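pasting for ref
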Amino acid sequence: FLSLQIRYDAESTVKNHQWLFQGYNDKAGAIGAEDIPTLDYLREQGISSYLALSFTVMLGRNVSPNRTKTVIVDVKPGLLPPGVETNAIQLKRLLQEPVRWKRLEYADKILNTYATQAKVVITSRIQMAMPAVAMGIPVIYVGMADYLEGNGVGDMLYSFDPYKGETWTYNVNKQLPPKAGLHRADRARASFWNVLKRSSPYYTNTVYLYGMVPFRRLGRAVPDEKSLQTLFHFAVTTPTISWREKRAVENVFFFHPNARVIVHSNTLRQGNCELDVFAETGYDLHIRPYDLKNMLQTTDSIMDKKLVDLFISSLSMFATGEHWYSHETDILRYMLLWKDGGVYLDTDMHLIKPLDKRNDLQNIVAYQDPQHDYVSGAVMIFEPGHKVLQGALQWILENYKNHYTEWPVLGSSLMTLLSKDETFKDTFQVLDDASFYPIDWESIEKCFTQDLPELDLSETFAVHLNTKITAHHLESIRGTLCDRLLHAYCIFCDEVHTIKREEPDIFEQDLNQPNDGVAYIGQESGDLLKKPKEQPKKDGPSFISKLVSGIFGGAASRPKKPQSKPVGIPERKYLPPVHMEFVKKKD
């Protein structure tokens, strides 16, 4: 189900076959809904789904740079002001032709007209608008604007509602600027491709054969006037990445779609990893191997060469340390930001707001606890060559050899030390913990098991999910805060990792509750609800059941999916920063 639309007269069919759609969820993933009413209805039935838009958003073609015509499709006479239709190409959506191949030939003619001649498309049919959107051609929709919102495309098209007496304000002789909603069209196209790629290698090979990959991202033409940040860094030292780590990258592109993201890794390879799908769908992501030795040698101009050489000669010894996998990324983030600047994020840091110009987020780190005792390096935003980064590198070269066996030495310990040193105190900001760490490490488990409605995220830009503590949550539980955060700001929204909360055993229910049915946990809240209505009995397998049986193999029944059990907060002893001193070199 890539782009499913459910009409009102088909809702009962879906409801009676709810088990079938949920079985599809378990076997094939979330269902793509073409419009918002379909999306809302599927979710009301407990069916995992996402807004996929119309499949025609995939019908992009290479367009001619010399398109000068206005193309009008199925607009009633008299609705457009005088002069708009002059010299315009008039097309009809349907060809009254019984021969199928002739209808297909006519559809190809429309697409070719768009690609070679249309400077702007004016239409009263959303089905005719979306192929133009897929080619990056501006569209003016003529009709009720409310209808656009219901179809989830209101921010992708210009609109003119003559039935409300609106005044025509468009000059079709000039190029209309691209709409911001094209970013959402890009996300829909990315999800389509992600589903096709997982479905069959034949689809993948065919798309590559015809040169459709990488996609031409439509939103690339949308000017980004708000974003202060255009370069983001991640560091990965494991051979694979989890869906949560991939979603952290998606969060960046959701809020900064035209940014460049560099994943620094010696274990992942571009062209053979889970992140390739970003580049395939037009996002500017690069996997870049790194060489600490070479990077350190570039610091000769600001550091004592003897210290640099001694540190490099000790790398093999440092690599034997228990915590080197973490210390290596700590050193790497200081080096990357000193050299190139930008935003460094740990792979368990999930953006929930854009880092835009209004908030002056430059040269900053943040406290990770409400008491403001510790400064974290899980998110760092700096200009290249910043003084505090140089100070961090100096401390590492001089002191790391004495601390390489200690866990927190280069993360919060070093950043906390530098934040208190008078040399650097006024050169960067330390933000309140609410900005990036609204849930402290002692409470982060609750994010995966509770809704936390009392938590105020109004001043929060990202949430640190602390993989060291929460890695055992392989899926997210429906109705929890983390489930919402992990699925709200996605690029590949077809990848849904939500499981239902485990139903409490009937024998564990409070005996004082009225005995009017088995209680179970509701979909979006922790309220106990009555037993749902029983499904109508089936005399035999229906056509749909047989069809799904053929697709899935075996009986078309809903298999039970393994669920992770919510656990309490583990007893963990926080390791305080080691005692360190910042010794300034004498001239």
